[in-house]
Every structure is written in structure tokens, then in C-alpha cells.
Design brief:
The protein is α/β, with parallel strands linked by helices. The protein is built from 12 helices and 13 strands. β3, α2 and β4 form a beta-alpha-beta unit.
Length: 325
């Protein structure tokens, strides 16, 4: 954006299996469809909406995504307009930490000064402009705090144990506050206490200087970083053979639990103004999102969903389950 040689990249995280939504993501043939390749209620897929969200803040040449090799039948056609070198393929799912580390290393090989915005592909956002403004602010905050990660926090409307929570320091009044505590998927009673303490939901949307994030990885899981760097160096940019062999033995590592939690001194949280954000990780959250859609959006989406679509509709699947009791 405006800080010398540093350029902003965006990485859309689209390699997950979405197993918690399996009841809604099974097509007519009985095949499980990863949720990022479904639509909410007709229209574009969740992946397409996330890519559009990312493209609003970075140019096409710095728009990237991480996908899974076993999902090729879905992403190969969905990502036809993206430069092939901007689609990073991991051999198999080994947790969100590995799913972020692989593209992080690949982006830094192409741009050693990269700042990166990370966006999941299973979110609904009613007001994209407001979230986009928060993303721009998060990147600008990196100019002041290049060694810290800036997390986007969402004001909670319930004590949801399915989400992570970020508690900012009470005495902090900066745009991006220091983090007092970071708690991943607490019990309901603990979640209520965190909200009372000023906690916000962790949206899993964040911005980081690429080298600062890599330094945090080296601190938390140095062996994995070394092994992945070695595999990529051995096989060149594609990393096909050595990387595939490495993924066969990699442990599953969760980014929030194993990388962020316990590293609060390197975290900042930026509160996002109300934008109608919702995580689509569970059937309950899908139903809640549909219920909250404005009437004109529901009518538009119903018109879209009545047309032939390449994407399985989560709303239609949920309605069928409701009718079936």
C-alpha cells in the first residue's frame, strides 16, 4: 500500500474438509462436497465470495489461495481465472497451521517483503465495504507494528463455544489493542466470562508481515518449518515429490491453538464495526445467517437459487433437513 517496498498480498484459506457441515454438504449422489465449494443460498460459492472479498483490497497478481489436492474436481474450474502460480495445493489436510505455513513460505519466496491478509472461505458478510475498510486498517497497522499480527475481532452476540475469543487489554485505547488473552473454543461458561471481560470473537481474519509470522512459526514449531523449507528447496517451486512425502508424516497442528495461543505479546486485535459477519462452520450458524438476511436479499437469493447452479445450496439442504424432522 504505502510503506516502501512492502506489497500487500491476500491468501484465501480453502483447503479444509468442513466436516462439521457434512449433513448439509452431501449432494444427491451421496458425495460430500467441501463447504467452500457450496453456496449459502444459490448464487456464487463461498470460495468465490471470499476471493471477491480479497480482490477488493489487493490486485489480481497478489491474490492467492490454498486448496487441497483431493478437492481438485471442484477448485480446478472454480479458480480458472486465477494465475496458476497463485493457487497453492497441499497434498493433504494436516491442520490449519500447516495450511498457512506452506503458502506463507511460497509467497515469501516470490516477495521477501510481503505483508499478507489471511481470509477463510466459509464466512458470510452482509456489509463487505465495512469489513474491507477494517482489512485496510489492519494492513496499515502493520506499518506501525511490523512484528505483530493484527487480528480482526467481531463483537459477540452470544457465548458460542465453537469460536475463539480474544480479550484486549482494558487500558488499551489504540485502534489495534494489545491482547490480554487468546482462548480457542472455550466451554460456554468460560466464553460468557470472556465476553464479560470485553472479549470479542476471533474471526480468523488477520494481517501479518510475512517475515514476522514466519518468525513466530520458527519459535512455536521450528522442526516443521525446517522440514517444509527443505522439501520446497528440494523439489523447486512445485515441491511435489518431497512435499507429498513430508505431508505423509506431518503432525496435525492447529493455527489458533498451537501458534497464536500463548503468543499474546505478538498479537493485536482490531475491533470490526458491525458488518453482519457470521461464521458458517456449523448447521446452526448457517440457519442463523439465513434467518438474519434482509428480506430483499432473501428474495434475490431465492431467485438465484431457482436457476441452475453449479454449487450445492446450504440453505436448500438445511430446509430439506428441517422438513425431514
Amino acid at each position: 500500500m504505502k510503506h516502501g517496498k512492502q506489497k500487500t498480498w491476500a491468501l484465501v484459506l480453502a483447503a479444509g474438509e468442513g466436516s462439521r457441515l457434512s449433513r448439509l454438504t452431501t449432494d444427491a449422489t451421496g458425495r460430500a462436497v467441501p463447504k467452500q465449494f457450496c453456496s449459502l443460498n444459490g448464487g456464487p460459492s463461498l470460495l468465490h465470495e471470499a476471493m471477491t472479498r480479497a480482490h477488493a483490497i489487493v490486485p489480481r497478481e497478489r491474490l492467492t489461495t490454498i486448496v487441497a489436492a483431493q478437492h481438485r474436481r471442484w477448485w480446478q474450474s472454480a479458480l480458472w481465472s486465477l494465475p496458476a502460480s497463485n493457487t497453492f495445493v497441499q497434498p493433504r489436510n494436516r491442520g490449519t497451521a500447516n495450511g498457512i505455513l506452506l503458502p506463507l513460505l511460497k509467497i515469501l519466496r516470490r516477495d521477501p517483503f510481503a505483508r499478507i491478509v489471511f481470509l477463510p472461505s466459509d464466512h458470510f458478510v452482509r456489509d463487505e465495504a465495512t469489513l474491507g475498510g477494517a482489512l485496510v486498517e489492519a494492513v496499515d497497522q502493520l506499518g506501525e507494528r511490523p512484528n505483530e499480527l493484527v487480528l480482526l475481532g467481531i463483537s459477540p452476540d452470544e457465548a458460542d463455544p465453537e469460536l475463539g475469543y480474544i480479550v484486549p487489554r482494558r487500558e488499551e485505547h489504540a485502534a489495534a489493542a494489545a491482547v490480554e488473552r487468546f482462548v480457542e473454543k472455550p466451554e460456554p461458561a468460560v466464553a460468557r466470562g470472556l465476553i464479560d471481560a470485553g472479549g470479542v470473537w476471533n474471526s480468523f481474519i488477520f494481517a501479518a508481515d510475512g517475515n514476522a509470522l514466519l518468525a513466530l512459526y520458527r519459535q512455536r514449531c521450528p522442526e516443521i518449518v525446517e522440514d517444509m523449507e527443505t522439501a520446497l528447496a528440494r523439489d523447486g517451486e512445485s515441491g511435489v515429490n518431497a512435499l507429498t512425502a513430508l505431508y505423509e508424516q506431518l503432525p496435525e497442528v492447529d493455527f489458533s491453538r498451537h501458534i497464536l495461543q500463548g503468543a499474546e505479546e505478538r498479537l493485536r486485535v482490531l475491533a470490526v464495526p458491525p458488518c453482519g459477519w457470521n461464521d458458517l462452520g456449523t448447521p446452526r450458524r448457517v440457519a442463523e445467517t439465513i434467518r438474519r438476511l434482509p428480506a430483499h436479499n432473501v428474495e434475490r437469493r431465492e431467485r438465484e437459487s431457482s436457476r441452475p447452479s453449479a454449487w450445492l445450496s446450504l440453505a436448500a439442504a438445511h430446509a430439506r433437513l428441517q422438513l425431514a424432522g
